[in-house]
Amino acid sequence: MNGPFKTSSDFRTTHDSGLKSFYANIFTFLGLNIIAFTSLSYFIAQNFNEFAFLYPKGFLSLIFFFFIFSFVMNALENSLTQNKQWMIIIPLLASLIAIESLIFAPLIIVFSESSTILLSFIISGSMLAIFSIIGTTTSVDLSEYRSLFSVGIIMIILTEAIGCFLNFAINLRITSIGIVFAFLFIIAYDMQQLKKVYYQNFEQSNKKIALLGSVLLFLNFVILLQRILILLNYKKDNK
């Protein structure tokens, strides 16, 4: 009745062992993504004049990066879910990391103190680790609250975008705090969903699903990093 498993205990042990391996793959890929992102961001920041042509001026810059990011992310997600070859997936992943690096590099120039940037990485990484654990251990169904947090994120981003476009002051401290709290929830939600996906695809190879999970966490990490950096700089400026 239990197929290749003699008892339900054997099945549970194999299941749990596979889940640990699945999580290990996610965080291994995530670590590699962050290393590549950090290295490329600093390289661009140190050679910014050579990359300046990639930055359209004014509000067009936001639109440009948004559409390029959306196209690459959609292509990468489709490639992973449709089990495409690695020779297609890896260039798309590299492109996504390059786009995020181009977006983050100007912040390294603006917030040039290495101690502040390092502290931002430590705080963001710690928050991601804590809420990843929460997402995998909580018994609360976080999907019930996802739409609420998603609407909140959209409202905050739209407020900032309109403020940038119409050139009126926005309190970035308040909006950044809102973004941080919302994305901490999203991290926990993503980990809970990845756990569900694993159980649904237990008998399949999970490396590409793990890579997709690492990409989602990587994007969440970058957003946390940007907002934590803004908050730390705000605190320093108001001492």
Count of domains: 1
Instruction: Tell me the β content.
Output: under 5%
Terminus-to-terminus distance = 68 Å
User: Structural class of the helices, strands and pairings?
Assistant: mainly alpha
Output the radius of gyration: 20 Å
- Tally the helices: what do you get? 8
Query: How many β strands by DSSP?
Result: 0
The helix content is over 70%
Shape: globular
Question: What are the low-pLDDT stretches, counting only 5+ consecutive residues below 50?
Answer: 1-11
Sketch the major β-sheet: none
The H-and-E topology, N to C, reads as HHHHHHHH
Average pLDDT score:
83
Q: What's the arrangement of secondary structure elements?
A:
Layout: H1 8-46, H2 48-51, H3 60-81, H4 86-110, H5 114-137, H6 143-166, H7 172-200, H8 207-237
Quick take:
83% of the residues lie in helices and 0% in strands. It has helices spanning 8-46, 48-51, 60-81, 86-110, 114-137, 143-166, 172-200, 207-237. Helix 4 (86-110) runs parallel beside helix 8.
Describe this structure in words.
The chain is mainly α. The protein has one domain. 83% of the residues lie in helices and 0% in strands. It has helices spanning 8-46, 48-51, 60-81, 86-110, 114-137, 143-166, 172-200, 207-237. Helix 3 packs antiparallel against helix 4, helix 4 (86-110) runs parallel beside helix 8 (207-237) and helix 5 (114-137) packs across helix 8. The chain is globular. It starts with 7 loop residues before the first helix and ends with a helix.
